[in-house]
# Entry
Amino acid sequence: MQRYKIIVQYDGTQYLGWQVQKEGKTIAGTLQDTFKKVFNHEITIVGASRTDAGVHALNQVATFTCALAIEPERMQWAWNNLLPDDMYIAALQPVGDDFDLYAQVAQKTYVYHIFTKRPSPFIARYGYTHYQALDVKKLDDALQKFVGTHDFRSFCTGDDREHTIRRVDSIMVEPITERDVYDLLVNRIIQPLAKNGETFDGYRITVKGPGFLRYMIRRMVGAALFVASHNQLSAQTIEQALEEKNPNQTLPNAPAQGLVLVDILYAKDLT
# Structure
């Protein structure tokens, strides 16, 4: 049996998330079903990050094992040929049994795109259009409250995890143009596209850390946006929610389509 590592890129719009479910279309399920159709061989795929329904990825890392004697390049080519257009295996390589998909992760990078006016239909599914007035300084101040090591029980799905302490290495808010979104979501995958120079107002939130709870980033972004859009609220609202450790707190959850898994770096990648 040989173990393989793959890098998967996908548009998560039409999927119920990464993890295989009893019903509904998922990323891992589609990969496994397609592999069986191509090679008449069943595999089980495990991903380094279990992205939620509607979330996208440029660099999802996953592993599987199989006994097929096929060159990795040919396996990748044949597998890609039958995958749907919204999914692509960017790399496939053999790895040793000592490769730990989870424990060796040094840092994950997610970005969340916010549009402040309606964008082009070609990128609308990769961001959330926020029509309320937005105080960007307050947005950044609120997001910075999440940086560091905290108990994020108030910013995950609930009591499904016994341990909810996580570390956020950094959060950055930066203004973006239409080209910036294309550069991230298109140029890295296919090829540069001609631009007409037209831009829109929007922001990219970049969140880095070794690991995140389910819905954690979306709840962080949603809460910070809510604070930044209401004059009577401040960054202290975030501090209070963190201290309460209440998964049922009512600060909103940002929609899935704005979130993109950009990178998963392993310890060896940083040496």
